[in-house]
Amino acid sequence: MNLFEEGLEFNFAELLEIIIGKGLKIALLVIALLIITPIGKKIISKAIAKASNKEKISEGRIKTLDKLLVNVYTYTLTFIFIVMLFGVFDLDLGPLLAAAGVVGLAIGFGAQGLVSDIVTGFFLLLERQIEVDEYVTAGGFNGIVEEVGLRTTKIRSFDGTLNFVPNRDVAGVSNHSRGTMRALVDIGISYDDNIDQAMQVLQKVCDEFKDDERFVDGPDVLGVQSFGSSEVVLRILGRTENMLQWSAERDMRKRIKEVFDEAGIEIPFPHQVNISKDA
After folding, report:
1. Domain of 45, in residue numbers
2. In 18-53, which positions are buried (b, 16+ CB within 10 angstroms) versus exposed (e)?
């Protein structure tokens, strides 16, 4: 074997040793990441749950903080993994970080939207304007909040669509889940029916629902709300627990229809009259 072959064999063996050594280090890093990630998430969840028991934090706030801290924890682990990965390949991080700082500064001037997202998200969380599981109108979308992040807010519409709303687009928030909600039912009767009788019948229906656990106040008949082209509109109003107003309204409408049928009170509906002329 000549010197060239010996050198080639030596270089190949050394290269193989380096590849195996670095491969093992990378594998250990990946395994450590896979082990530490779920452990850290469980610790965060337990810590938040323990703090909530002491300070009586709302369930929505707990979910909001849990998802936010888990995201921050995941980003931090990812950054540490990348730094350690560079260390495995013996790369100097100084010039890399310096270059990243210059590039980041250049990007920052053109990423005002991203900065606005983070600032707005910070104040959304600080002022507790919205929380997970609340029904809100924000950024032109209605639905249930699934996650509040520093950059985006996730809102699930009632048709199942998941909307990712940049925080800078949340110019105003309508939170429909703070305090009691209003259950409002408008019902029309014919102009030929007796209004007082109809109101008495409606009040009996309201009395049936006063013991319903969904209602915290009422419901009661307010009176005549408006006059339509073919109907007199009567209004019922009550206050319910959060997110229960729709089910209460549906049940009341069903019961009103049943009672009106028993009392002979007509709910107006469009009629079609066909007139035929004999030839």
Report:
1. 10-57+72-91
2. eeeeeeeeeeebeeeeeeebeebeeebeeebeeebe
Specify if 247 maps to a domain: yes
- Same domain, residue pair 186 and 259: yes
Q: What is the CATH number of the domain that holds 255?
A: 3.30.70.100
Distance (Å, whole) CA 224 – CA 221: 9
- Pull the structure tokens for residue 215: 């209602």
What total of structural domains would you count in the chain? 3
Co-location of 130 and 148 in the same domain: yes
CATH number at residue 157: 2.30.30.60
Cut 0.85: pTM above it:
no
Q: Indicate whether 185 and 159 sit together in one domain.
A: no
> Is residue 170 located within the same domain as residue 201?
no
Do residue 203 and residue 255 come from a single domain? yes
CB within 8 Å of 112: residues ≥ 6 apart: none
* 138-191 residue pLDDT tens: 888 888 888 887 778 888 988 888 998 888 888 778 888 777 788 888 888 888
Cα angle: 160, vertex 177, 119; to 5 degrees = 80
CB neighbours of 86 closer than 8 A, spacing ≥ 6? 93, 96
| pLDDT for the residue numbered 129 | 81
